Amino acid sequence: MTVFDTADLAVIEDTAKRFAQAEICPHLEAREEAGEFPRGLYRKLADMGWLGLGYPEELGGTPAPWAVRVALSRTLSRYTGSGGVMAGAFSHSIGLPPILNHGSDELKRRVIPDVLAGSKVSALGITEPGCGSDVSRLRTTARREGGDYVVDGEKVFITSGMRADWITAAVRTDPDNKGASGISMLVIPGDAPGLSRAPLRKMGWLCSDTAHLHFDGVRVPAGNLVGEEGKGFRIIMTNFNGERLSMAAMALGMSECCYDEALAWARERKTFGASLVNHQVVRHKLVDMRMRIESTRAWLTNVADRADAGQADAQWIAEVCMLKNHATQAMQFCADQAVQILGGMGYMRGTASERIYREVKVATIGGGTEEIMKELASRQLGI
């Protein structure tokens, strides 16, 4: 098994660029229109060793520091310009860590290797119709009956929820405790009787399915409990840190994609007898984009390096929250400026900037809204 380290960054970035251009981009628009993410693409990503980045070799993974994982996410995002591809390909990056870090050895062996091999799909089920950011208010219940838990409730906005073979779900195992301490994590098989799914239509991330899940007396083996009963809330909160770091990397790549497309168009398009890029106002827009890209890149590199050094204190958590906001705001700015530079073409389907413009809001909302990020950062900083 290949072991990636930071010395491999240039090779990984070049390989990811070529993979995106050869395997993803030629089919992207068709997949967006069809709203699908083919399972064969999981296998190709797995064969590259990318689905298993950061997981132990004994589970079929590929050991790699955060710096490498961030570089891969950033590069694939830059050269696909599709949040749907990234969400569909890497939904396991939020579905599997709770199992890896807190599950039993038997549960890890049963779930993780097939997902990393690209033959199974993993999703995370937290959000409910009545609770989004306020996770402690979730209402899906799991009551113990003999050797099983019986799950009733629903989840919404679940990435890869239609495809998922495994759903790592937050459930309330103590119905008398309405707060955070009554929450547990349970891995629910996708083929369990009583589980039904409905697809949701979205503004963006079109090739990545998003589902509304219903659990009606779903029986789940007690061995699928992740960690201890009542300890799920802390698992969820720590899981968010990795998700937010990955989202920052994706947002940076999307910002770079917008810049690349806008610059290429500005050099090609002629107005008033000169290329767009020869107009000062256009050059200044491009510089404004680069300013935000470079500040995000430097901050992301710093935070990832500190994660690899083992830092996970309040200061680091606060910076992850602020970085997530900074990166997604940079993405929002770059998408807006790119569409403006492209003019009418920027409003047309088929340009990366148009697609990213539609996907900006899910980036600023998903994994924790801007408002929640600011509040969490202020608390971690003792403000």
- Helix content range: 40-55%
Biggest sheet layout: 4 strands, mixed
How would you spell out the order of helices and strands?
HHHHHHHEEEEEEEEHEEHHHH
Number of domains: 3
Mean pLDDT: 94
The value of Rg in angstroms is 21 Å
CATH architecture verdict of the largest domain: Up-down Bundle
Counting DSSP E segments of at least 2 residues, the number of strands comes to 10
How large a portion of the residues is in β-strands, by DSSP E?
A: 15-25%
Low-pLDDT runs = none
Q: Which structural class best describes the helix and strand composition?
A: alpha+beta
Strand order of the largest sheet: 1-4-5-8
Outline type: globular
Q: CATH fold name of the largest domain, please?
A: Butyryl-CoA Dehydrogenase, subunit A, domain 3
Q: Total helix count?
A: 12
Could you tell me how far the N terminus lies from the C terminus, measured between alpha carbons in angstroms?
46 Å
Under CATH at level 1, the class of the largest domain stands as Mainly Alpha
CATH homologous superfamily grouping of the largest domain: Butyryl-CoA Dehydrogenase, subunit A, domain 3
Oligomer: single chain
